[in-house]
Amino acid sequence: ETGTTNHKTIIFLGFTMAANRIFGNILFSGTLMTVNQVVPANHRRVLNNLLLLGGSCVKVLAPLFAGALVASIFPWKDTISSQIKVATVYSTLGILQIAVAIATTHYLKQNKNELL
Questions:
Q1: Res 116 pLDDT > 50
Q2: What is the pTM of this model?
Q3: pLDDT one-digit tens code per residue, 86-106
Q4: Residue 54's CB: how many other CB atoms inside 10 A?
Q5: Of the candidates 34, 27, 62, which has an alpha carbon nearest to the alpha carbon of residue 48?
Q6: b/e code 103-113 from CB counts within 10 Å (16+ = b)
Q7: Contact (Cβ atoms closer than 8 angstroms) between residue 53 and residue 68
Q8: Residue 1: per-residue pLDDT
Q9: Least confident of 35-39, 49-53, 87-91
Q10: How far is CA 106 from each of CA 66, 101, 109, 110, 112, rounded to the nearest angstrom?
Q11: Do residues 58 and 24 touch, judged by C-beta distance below 8 A?
């Protein structure tokens, strides 16, 4: 039926959310381990706290951004199907995540000599 969620959609969203959480935890843990190897021992506590603060800020700002994105896309004309609207939201969030990953990789490659 149109407008209802079927089992395939729920399973897909469950796997998507699980992958998001797993890769987010891996990224955060990898960042902490890399920073701990690079930073002198007397600065590790401060840097780890700053990483936790940054992670907390992102956890606050991400739902605000996602809510603003959804609120701006769903009032579009009724001629556009809701499936296209949902695909637009997921695509925008995916593109932003890919952009952050590319920017981080580029930054780390440029500053590799400085970090070591």
A1: no
A2: 0.50
A3: 888 888 888 888 888 888 778
A4: 12
A5: 34
A6: eeeeeeeeeee
A7: no
A8: 57
A9: 35-39
A10: 25, 9, 5, 6, 10
A11: no
Whether residue 76 contacts residue 87, with contact meaning beta carbons closer than 8 Å, is answered with: no
| Residue bearing the bigger pLDDT, 112 or 63 | 63
What string of H, E and C letters represents the secondary structure of the chain? CCCCCCHHHHHHHHHHHHHHHHHHHHHHHHHHHHHHHHCCHHHHHHHHHHHHHHHHHHHHHHHHHHHHHHHHHCCCCCCCCHHHHHHHHHHHHHHHHHHHHHHHHHHHHHCHHHHC
The reported pLDDT for the residue numbered 26 is 76
Residue-level length of the chain: 116
Residue pointed to by tokens 């009032």: 75
Average pLDDT score, the chain: 78
Structure tokens at 115: 């970090």
